[in-house]
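TASK: fixed-backbone design
INPUT:
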């Protein structure tokens, strides 16, 4: 069988299989371009089973492009909470505003116009145009490149841009006339359910008879893919600061800066404990006493007096390029005027003992160097460290610290968790705290 016949065999048999075996997914039930767009953004780096409840909730709260464009960003992030890769949500809302401003609220059908939307790359543009509008545009992602690499025995590295171009041209040639919507979804479905990365189900594959990779015994070695650089581990110290007095029953949280990693999301205060380890190597945990000294120092540097009482738990949060390995400490709010000197003396002694054995200095990309934290424990500095511009937001005070980055801190209770967007790791830690999981951690 020649290449033309092999291509025809692939397209015909794949479509026949899909029409019988396609999954019932909520975004497939309506030919709604907006639903297609939202689902494709959510499905980036995320499994279908994970996406389904998020999609249903998101569409329930933002049923149209206009509703998404006009929603407060915090509401959008709250609906995305736990799904990860939060820049996707921000870009999706920014693109919705583009659609409202430039296209009258209608998702464009022109390739260049779709590609110009914030957060839309070649794959997403192809998916929107083919699935929503049945245009013969290829939609090539990792699943599709894996299927094509195996079926056509393509030895090119799929991490290279030239290979993607080759795959897009090939995928475009395979689309049967008038069937772009079904074909592209069939190709994605085959990669997700049958031609899987580590254990392809060749015996149930609808195109196995002409699969060159299977015939050559290469189904487990294809596609060729350069290994990505492993994420860099970082050891971070996290504070669960329990309030006293007017703040009793509340916990201190802060909002991240306007740009960068997890921009504008809420989190527990934390600081980098040690210089980042080399990629692929686990960061070494810090002993509790010097760790608590650094943590208390970092809080005081931001304008808060708090005494770390003991380790609550260890946790981990994985980004594409960083792994946060977290040591989480329960802390108690202290009076700055009367109790800070004692905390300062204890923390400085513990930090000095640890520093004496170190030749390196850790620098937190979100703040100052760890070596300066202990030096901020000086009572003469208290007059210069003032909380400014107290503002009431809802039922809880929002406090702006008088620093250049204007970090925002707030005391919250469990009732505030439904209103604020947290990265998944801090959502879990706070939920566990309010559920009493760490009540016995310091005993």
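OUTPUT:
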């Amino acid at each position: 069988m020649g290449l033309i016949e092999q291509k025809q065999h692939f397209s015909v048999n794949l479509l026949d299989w899909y029409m019988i075996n396609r999954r019932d997914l909520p975004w497939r039930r309506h030919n709604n371009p907006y639903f297609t767009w939202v689902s494709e953004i959510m499905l980036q780096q995320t499994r279908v089973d994970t996406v389904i409840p998020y999609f249903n909730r998101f569409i329930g709260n933002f049923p149209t492009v206009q509703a998404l464009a006009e929603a407060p960003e915090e509401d959008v992030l709250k609906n995305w909470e736990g799904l990860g890769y939060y820049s996707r949500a921000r870009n999706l809302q920014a693109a919705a505003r583009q659609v409202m401003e430039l296209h009258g609220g209608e998702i464009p059908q022109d390739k260049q116009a779709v590609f110009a939307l914030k957060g839309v790359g070649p794959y997403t543009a192809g998916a929107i145009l083919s699935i929503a509008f049945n245009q013969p545009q290829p939609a090539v992602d990792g699943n599709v490149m894996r299927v094509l690499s195996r079926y056509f025995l393509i030895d090119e590295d799929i991490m290279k841009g030239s290979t993607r171009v080759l795959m897009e041209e090939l995928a475009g040639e395979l689309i049967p006339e008038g069937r772009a919507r079904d074909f592209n979804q069939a190709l994605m479905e085959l990669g997700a359910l049958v031609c899987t990365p580590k254990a392809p189900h060749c015996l149930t594959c609808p195109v196995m008879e002409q699969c060159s990779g299977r015939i050559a015994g290469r189904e487990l070695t294809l596609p060729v893919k350069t290994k990505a650089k492993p994420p860099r581990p970082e050891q971070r110290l996290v504070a669960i600061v329990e309030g006293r007095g007017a703040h009793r029953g509340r916990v201190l949280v802060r909002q991240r800066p306007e740009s960068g990693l997890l921009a504008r999301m809420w989190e527990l205060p934390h600081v980098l404990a040690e210089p980042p380890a080399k990629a692929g190597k686990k960061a070494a945990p810090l002993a509790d006493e010097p760790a608590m000294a650094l943590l208390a120092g970092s809080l005081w540097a931001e304008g808060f007096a708090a005494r770390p009482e003991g380790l609550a738990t260890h946790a981990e949060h994985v980004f594409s390029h960083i792994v946060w390995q977290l040591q989480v400490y329960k802390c108690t709010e202290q009076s700055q005027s009367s109790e800070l000197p004692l905390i300062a003396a204890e923390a400085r002694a513990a930090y000095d003992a640890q520093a004496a054995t170190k030749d390196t200095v850790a620098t937190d990309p979100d703040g100052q160097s760890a070596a300066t934290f202990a030096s901020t424990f000086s009572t003469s500095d208290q007059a210069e460290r003032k909380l400014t511009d107290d503002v009431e937001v809802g039922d809880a005070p929002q406090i702006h610290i008088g620093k250049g980055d204007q970090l925002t801190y707030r005391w919250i209770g469990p009732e505030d968790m439904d209103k604020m967007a947290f990265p998944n790791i801090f959502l879990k830690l706070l939920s566990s705290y309010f559920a009493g999981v760490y009540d016995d951690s310091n005993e």
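COMMENT: The chain has 15 helices and nine strands.
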